[in-house]
């Protein structure tokens, strides 16, 4: 015994995870994340990053962070309602609202915190939440925290959503929740049909557009723009940590909604504000996205090239419509073995296993970026071809 805690309990639980091929360990990289990284003293092609537009290392984004750090320091000091609001926060919120075409925006420390804060603020005990089965863990946790009645609908199944709406015993607040681009499958939510259902049945619709912001839509405004629903979806959430190459998250919507969330979202009220450097970097990233549409063009060209290559190899893919390209393997042990063999051939692509995805759907989740060269993508496909030949795992 050590301090009243039997350490063998942890070892036993870790062994159980290991035996089920579900044990996770941290991988230490030796360089900034990009199209390739230094790992174990060698360069490997990185196909696991959400830095879709390569903005994490963009000189203007980096410089904006440096200038903000020199001017405002490394931290924000406290919650913004105490002493944490600085000019970079206000500037970013104004820029985000303009970028998304809404009245206002509000920053959060992470996508997880945004969902934990906003969803319980929108609906509580006595309300009803209908959430897509494949929503992110943060959405599921937020639904539980809200104390509303919580029902899961089959992935992308609007008929199931309608049946749940019809079965409501009383008229009560109802919130439908979906991702815009689903993070592990790469497919898109049926937003037009979900909006119509929300309008018909008097429900609210909450869209987590973490993976759509910056890459979906004609100008990169996200999945809402992709479907032309800006006027019918009054608010939604997004993150700064993927296509924007920074960190944190945001809610965009009306001024009244944002002011309400400021006063009710515990994950905003009781959290220290984002570092000023992060906010400044994100503002710079939005400028680059507007000024350099060719980054999105390269991203989608690379996505098509890699997608076609995976299909040629006979890989079983999800119905993806994004730069997220998951190769379904099934068994967790087989997925882990495939990832290990790919790394041996110079390709870093993570094995995604339960509980991140449902049992029996473990996969290699490839993600491409605008910064991958065609040579890198072709080398990665050749490595996968060799691994398939060696192991027969796909």
CATH 4th-level superfamily of the largest domain: Type I PLP-dependent aspartate aminotransferase-like (Major domain)
User: Beta fraction of the residues?
Assistant: 15-25%
What overall form do the CA principal axes indicate? globular
Structural class: alpha/beta
Q: Quote the CATH topology of the largest domain.
A: Aspartate Aminotransferase, domain 2
The number of distinct helices, counting runs of at least 4 residues, comes to 15
Distance between the amino and carboxyl termini: 46 Å
Annotation, overall tally of beta strands: 13
Largest sheet properties: 4 strands, parallel
Mean pLDDT: 94
Percent of residues in helices: 40-55%
**Multimeric organization:** single chain
CATH class descriptor name of the largest domain: Alpha Beta
Spatially, the strands of the biggest sheet line up as 5-4-6-7
> Low-confidence stretches at least 5 residues in length (pLDDT < 50)?
none
Order of helices and strands: HEEHHHEHEHEHEHEHEEHHHHEHEEEH
CATH architecture classification of the largest domain: 3-Layer(aba) Sandwich
Rg, please? Answer: 22 Å
What does it look like?
Helix 4 (87-100) runs parallel beside helix 12 and helix 7 runs parallel beside helix 8. A four-stranded parallel beta sheet has the order 5-4-6-7, with helices on both faces. A three-stranded mixed beta sheet has the order 1-2-11. It folds into two domains: 23-52 and 293-391, Alpha-Beta Complex (Aspartate Aminotransferase, domain 1), CATH 3.90.1150; 58-291, Type I PLP-dependent aspartate aminotransferase-like (Major domain) (Aspartate Aminotransferase, domain 2), CATH 3.40.640. Helix 8 links the parallel strand 6 and strand 7. It has 394 residues and is α/β, with parallel strands linked by helices. The protein has helices at residues 7-19, 59-72, 80-84, 87-100, 111-122, 137-146, 158-166, 191-201, 223-226, 255-264, 266-269, 276-291, 294-312, 332-344, 374-391; strands at 36-39, 42-46, 104-108, 128-132, 149-153, 174-179, 204-208, 236-239, 249-253, 324-330, 347-348, 351-352, 362-367. The N and C termini lie far apart (46 Å). The chain is globular.
